[in-house]
Amino acid sequence: PATPKPAPTPEPYNPFYKALLNMDRIKKQFVTEDWVANHYRVIVWKCAGQERTQPSVYAGSALTPDNIAAQLLLRYAAEVEEGKRPAIRRITEKDDTPGRPMTLVVSGIGGKTIEVSDGWYCLDCVLDNPLTVLIQSQAIKVGTKIVSFSSSILGTHTDGIPPLQAKSTLKLKLNYNCVRPATWHAKLGYTEVNTMPSLPLSALSPEGGVVACVEVVIIRRYPVQYLETLPCGKKVFLSERSERKRQEEHDRLRERSIEQISEKLSKQARNKPKPTKESIKNIVSGEDLYNLITADADPGSLQALLSSSQRKTLAEYSEKERSRQQNHHNKLLMEELSEKCPPRRVVSLVKHKVLCGVELGAKYCFLTVWRAEKEESLKEGRGYKVYNVTCGSLRGSGLTLSSSKNTVYREIVGDFSHLSAKVVCSVSNVPVGVSECDLIGKVLQTNKQTGEENKQTDKENKQ
């Protein structure tokens, strides 16, 4: 006879699930098996941690069936009866932003991904390279608490879904520059701190994504530049003077193109065959009459050939057709104009040399402010808290900071002249190692050279 298969081992949460369903106060449509399994796992983990870290306090009273059942009832009362929702549930149901500061605990690690929990629900995370290195070096492990700022959600759902369904479809995107360790006793969920503390330059990584907050002192503000993307895809940096000249040339080319295209469209309309008196008598459509009148070089003589009924039909159709014809003409004009004289793609920027920090010993880096015409308030010698900037790197320049459409600047009240002071000295006394300086001089003589003299001077300089 075949050996009977052993009965499946019941899940450890089954007794609690059945006990909840037998209670009169429990609404069964809200207490599903998945709901009990999720909270049972989190509660047991929490109680086991309390027993291990503080055995003298709990003395075996935390990890007991009675306490676990009481914790499940408290969570049912909070979520179902009181309508409270934890951070991850609010995020997956699209009722809050994942960018808010929140404290999470690492509840699982699998390869290059981790699972985090707010103490109620769990969600998988996508990590960047610096965070992956911390996982591999075990600097972040199961049980580590972290504070996350400016995180984002990845997934295809446009509408909110329950957190137990979202675990397989939604992921939380964490950036190294916006994640910091939390204390072991930090309360999980949304934090009371609304902004992330400022970070020093040494704590940032060019692969770490957005920087939530950094304090800077503007040491030098460079002239406005413009970055133009040419139709071939090549990018060109322009000075303010060069940009003004290019824009003037583009405006002149655009005006000439509009005149040529308009003349071309008008000529096409005039070249249409002129109708005869016999052919006009047979036209009863308002659209056909309108097209004949507007295409004729002498519309007055043509209207004289119309009968009274045709004039009435034409008047009724002309009013609504005139605007449509104008729109059609403009559409053709813009289509040809975009091919012959495409619009320029230009964005302004201002580079700033800044100290990342308001204390002595802070390191230098460069802050690029894009669309600089909107940020004229940044002044040399003043300190600012800059929120939501991207971090990158340039060869030979170390870390760089760049603004985005979400970047916010808040001036720091204080005197930073000791950090941005400039020393006046003669050219012969400029200290060794100074990479740049401002020069004050007086022009004593200029020589105008011809083209041939310029070539000879260049040749002598190369020799």
Describe the fold and architecture:
Strands 1, 2, 3, 4, 5, 6, 7 and 8 form an eight-stranded mixed sheet that branches. The chain has a five-stranded mixed β-barrel with strand order 9-12-13-15-14. The protein has helices at residues 14-21, 33-53, 55-58, 65-81, 87-92, 129-136, 163-166, 240-270, 277-281, 286-295, 299-303, 308-340, 417-420, 451-462; strands at 102-110, 113-117, 122-127, 145-148, 152-154, 171-174, 179-181, 189-190, 210-221, 225-229, 235-239, 345-356, 364-370, 383-394, 398-402, 408-412. It starts with 13 loop residues before the first helix and ends with a helix. With 463 residues, the protein is of the alpha+beta class.
Strand-helix topology:
Elements: H1 14-21, H2 33-53, H3 55-58, H4 65-81, H5 87-92, E1 102-110, E2 113-117, E3 122-127, H6 129-136, E4 145-148, E5 152-154, H7 163-166, E6 171-174, E7 179-181, E8 189-190, E9 210-221, E10 225-229, E11 235-239, H8 240-270, H9 277-281, H10 286-295, H11 299-303, H12 308-340, E12 345-356, E13 364-370, E14 383-394, E15 398-402, E16 408-412, H13 417-420, H14 451-462
Parallel strand pairs: 3-6, 13-15
Antiparallel strand pairs: 1-2, 1-4, 1-8, 2-3, 4-7, 5-6, 9-12, 9-14, 10-11, 10-12, 12-13, 14-15, 14-16
